[in-house]
Amino acid sequence: MGIYDRLTPGLTSEICLIATVVASFQEASNLMRDRGVDIDGKKICELTRRYARRAEFVRQTSNAVEGETLTGRRVVVSTDGGRIRIRKKKRGPKTQKGRCRYTTNWREPKLLIVYTVNEKGEKDASFLPVIEGTMKGPDAVFGLIKYYLKQLAVTTSEKVLFVADGARWIWNRVPALMKELGLAASQFYSLVDFFHAVEHLVKIADLRTGWKKSERNAWVKKHRRLLLQGKIGDVISSIQSICRGRRSKKLTCEKNYFVRNKCRMKYDAISSIGLPIGSGAMESAIRRVVNLRLKGASIYWLEESAEAMLMLRSFYKAGRWNVLNRSALSAGYVI
C-alpha cells in the first residue's frame, strides 16, 4: 500500500483505529486535529470504508488466521443479530433546502463469535476469539462461520458447541453447516442458550393473569430447576397443561418454542462435559461491537459504512487489530 490521499499507510492505520474506537467520525476528526492532522469526519468515513475493503480483499484471497488451529480444543460457536438504522434515499422531490429525502429503517447486523474454553467451561485466554459481522443476512454470516472454522481446522478439535437463542434463521442452517464442515455427530453439540429459555418461562408465567406474583415466581423457579436437571419433558408437559383449554396464541407460541427446541435443551448433559450453557459471549459481542458504536439516538448509517465499521470493530474487540491491519496495508491495489 503506497501513499494515498496524502496520507502514509501508518497514518491511515492510526486514523482508522481511532475512528473504530471512539463514538463518531467527528470525534475522530477532533482527536486528529489535536494531534496536528486536519482531516474532517467525512474524509475519515471514506478512509475507513476503503481500509475495510482492502482487508476484505486480502481475507478472500488468503488465510485470515494463518498459523492458528483449533486442534484438541473445546470450541464454542455462536451467532446473533443486533439493531442499527440504515439510511436510504427516497424517491421524489427534494426538501425546500434542496436536500434529498431519506428513510432510516431498522436493520439487523449479524455477528459471529468463535472462542475456546477449558475443561471447566471457562473462556480460554490462550486463543484470541474470532469475531466478525455483516449486513448481508443469515447466509452471509453462516458463510463466514464456515470460512473461519475451515481455516482453523475445526475437524481436529476435541468438541464443538453451537449455542444461540431460539431464532429459526439460526437453527435451520446449523445442520447444513455441520455437514459441510465434516464434523462427526459425536464431536458436535447444539444448545439453546439457557437464559433465553428462562426468559420464555417468565413470559408463560406472565400470561397467567390469574396467578399472584408469588405463584408466577414459584412456577418459574421450579421449571428453571427442571431445565437445569435436563427434565425438558416435564417442563413441556407442564406448559401443555397450562395451554389445555385455552386459545391464547401467545401461550401456544411459547409452548411451540420449547417443543421445537426440545433436543437443544440438554443442559445437564452439556454441563457434565464442561461446556457452557449460555451465549453470554455473543451477547457481550453485540453490545461491544454494535451497540456502543453503531447504535444510538439519531445515528444512521449508509450500508457500506456500516459493513466496514462492523468488520473494524469486530477485529478490534477480538484483539485482532494487527491481523486486520496487516491485511489492509498489504493489499496491492486502491479502491
Can you describe this structure in just a few lines?
With 335 residues, the protein is an alpha/beta fold. It is built from 14 helices and seven strands. It has helices at residues 9-21, 25-34, 41-61, 138-151, 168-171, 174-181, 194-207, 213-228, 232-243, 249-260, 267-272, 280-291, 303-317, 321-330, and strands at residues 74-81, 84-89, 102-107, 110-117, 130-134, 159-164, 188-192.
Question: How would you explain this protein's 3D organization?
Answer:
The chain is α/β, with parallel strands linked by helices and 335 residues long. It contains 14 helices and 7 strands. The strands form 2 sheets. It has a 5-stranded mixed sheet, sandwiched between helices. A two-stranded antiparallel ribbon has the order 2-3. Helix 12 (280-291) crosses helix 13. The longest helix is centred in the first third of the chain and has 21 residues, at 41-61.
